[in-house]
Design a protein that fits this description.
Helix content: 40-55%
Distance between the termini: 36 Å
CATH class of the largest domain: Alpha Beta
Shape: elongated
Largest sheet: 3 strands, parallel
Strand content: 5-15%
CATH architecture of the largest domain: 3-Layer(aba) Sandwich
Bound molecules: tryptophan, iron/sulfur cluster
Order of helices and strands: EHEHHEHHHHHEHEHHHHH
CATH superfamily of the largest domain: HUPs
Number of strands: 5
Number of helices: 14
CATH topology of the largest domain: Rossmann fold
Radius of gyration: 22 Å
Length: 329
C-alpha cells in the first residue's frame, strides 16, 4: 500500500486547535503508517485571505510544524514540507490556470460563501478566485490517489478532478483523479457552540495548558436554560457535553442522564472535563516542549520533506511539459 500516494495540506494560520486536530491531523497520523504520505503547510494559501498582514507569516509556519510534530506526525514515516519551498506548485498552477474555465471558479460554493462572510476583507482578487486551481496543483503535482479532507473541502476536490480530466483529455493521461478520504468527523464545537475557528476566537489550542485551558473550559457555553443545578438540562445542545463524548466516552452516558435529571451542576461537569482534556493533551504538549527546546528540528523536518517533494514534483513537471509539448529542450 505504501505506493498509494496520499496528500493533504493545512493553511498556516498559526497554532493548531482541537478542531484542526479532529478535523484532519488525527487522520493524517493514522494514514502515515499505511500510505506514501505528503503533508504540507499551505503557506501560499494563507496569503489568499491574509495578504495584507504578513507580520507573523514565518512564525505561523513554525507553529504549525511544531504542532504537527507534537500531534504525532513522524518525519521518518511521512513527508512534511512547505508549499512555498516547492516552486513547482507555482509553475503547475500557472499552466493549469490556462485550461481552467473561469465559470468553474466563480461557481465554487466556498468562493461565494467566503466573499459574503469575509466582507470586511477585500478578497476580490485574482489569487483568491484561483484558490481551487492552486489547490488542484498541490494535489495533482504529486499524482495523488487520495486526499484526506473535511467536508468543507469537497467542492475544491471536485474542481481538482475536473481539471485533471480536462488536462488528460486535452493533452495526455498524466493525472489520476484523486479521491477524497473523508474524515469520520468527531463533532467538536467551539467554546461558544459555533464551529471551532480561529476567526470566531472560540478555540482550544493544542498548546493550551493549566490555567489557560482551565479558564477556557470554565467559560464554555452550556445549556442556557440551566440556572440552578436542579434545573433539568439538555446535554444535546451543550458544548461541554459534546466534548465529554469525545474526551470522556466512558462517563458521557451517565453525565447525560444526570444532567437531564438536574443531578449535576455545570461547574462540576466542566471541572471533570478539564481533567480529561488535560490528560488527552499532555503527551502532545510533551512532544511540543521537546521540539520547542530544539528548534533546529523544525528545519530538519522540512528540509527532508522538501527534498522528497522536489524529486516527486520535478518528475511530474517533466511529464506535464512533455504532454503539453511545451518543453523547449
Ligand atoms: N484548502 C485547504 C484548507 O483550507 C488547505 C489545502 C491547500 C489543501 N492545498 C491543499 C488540502 C491540498 C488538501 C490538499 O484546509
Ligand atoms: Fe452541559 Fe454538563 Fe451543564 Fe449538562 S451539566 S448543561 S452537560 S455542562
Amino acid at each position: 500500500m505504501k505506493d498509494m500516494v496520499v496528500l493533504s495540506g493545512t493553511r498556516s494560520t498559526g497554532s493548531l486547535h482541537l478542531g484542526n486536530y479532529f478535523g484532519a491531523v488525527e487522520n493524517w497520523v493514522n494514514l502515515q503508517n499505511e500510505y506514501n504520505c505528503y503533508f504540507f503547510i499551505a503557506d501560499w494559501h494563507s496569503l489568499t485571505t491574509g495578504y495584507e498582514n504578513t507580520e507573523n507569516y514565518v512564525h505561523n509556519i513554525n507553529e504549525v510544524v511544531m504542532d504537527l510534530y507534537a500531534s504525532g506526525l513522524d518525519p521518518q514515516k511521512c513527508n512534511i514540507f512547505l508549499q512555498s519551498k516547492i516552486q513547482n506548485h507555482a509553475e503547475l498552477h500557472l499552466l493549469l490556470s490556462m485550461i481552467t474555465p473561469l465559470s468553474w471558479l466563480e461557481r465554487c460554493p466556498t468562493y461565494k460563501d467566503q466573499l459574503s462572510q469575509l466582507s470586511e476583507k477585500d478578497i476580490r482578487t485574482y489569487g483568491f478566485l484561483g484558490y481551487p486551481c492552486l489547490m488542484a496543483s498541490d494535489i495533482l503535482i504529486y499524482r495523488a490517489d487520495a486526499v484526506p479532507v473535511g467536508e468543507d473541502q469537497l467542492p475544491h476536490l471536485e474542481i481538482t478532478r475536473e481539471i485533471a480530466r480536462r488536462f488528460n483529455f486535452m493533452y495526455q493521461e498524466v493525472f489520476p483523479e484523486p479521491k477524497a478520504l473523508l474524515t469520520k468527523a468527531k463533532v467538536l464545537p467551539g467554546l461558544d457552540g459555533r464551529k471551532m475557528s480561529k476567526s470566531y476566537d472560540n478555540t482550544i489550542l493544542l498548546k493550551d495548558e493549566s490555567e489557560v485551558l482551565r479558564t477556557k473550559i470554565m467559560s464554555m457555553i452550556t445549556d442556557p436554560a440551566r440556572i440552578k443545578k436542579t434545573d433539568p438540562g439538555h446535554p444535546e445542545i451543550c458544548s461541554v457535553y459534546a466534548f465529554h463524548k469525545v474526551f470522556n466516552e466512558a462517563e458521557a452516558p451517565s453525565i447525560c442522564e444526570s444532567c437531564k435529571k438536574g443531578e449535576i451542576g455545570c461547574v462540576a461537569c466542566k471541572k471533570n472535563l478539564y481533567g480529561k482534556v488535560s490528560e488527552f493533551l499532555s503527551p502532545i504538549q510533551e512532544r511540543r516542549k521537546f521540539i520547542e527546546a530544539k528548534p533546529s528540528l523544525i528545519r530538519e523536518i522540512l528540509e527532508k520533506g522538501n527534498a522528497n517533494a522536489k524529486i516527486k514534483t520535478d518528475d511530474t513537471m517533466n511529464m506535464v511539459r512533455k504532454a503539453m509539448k511545451i518543453n523547449w529542450e
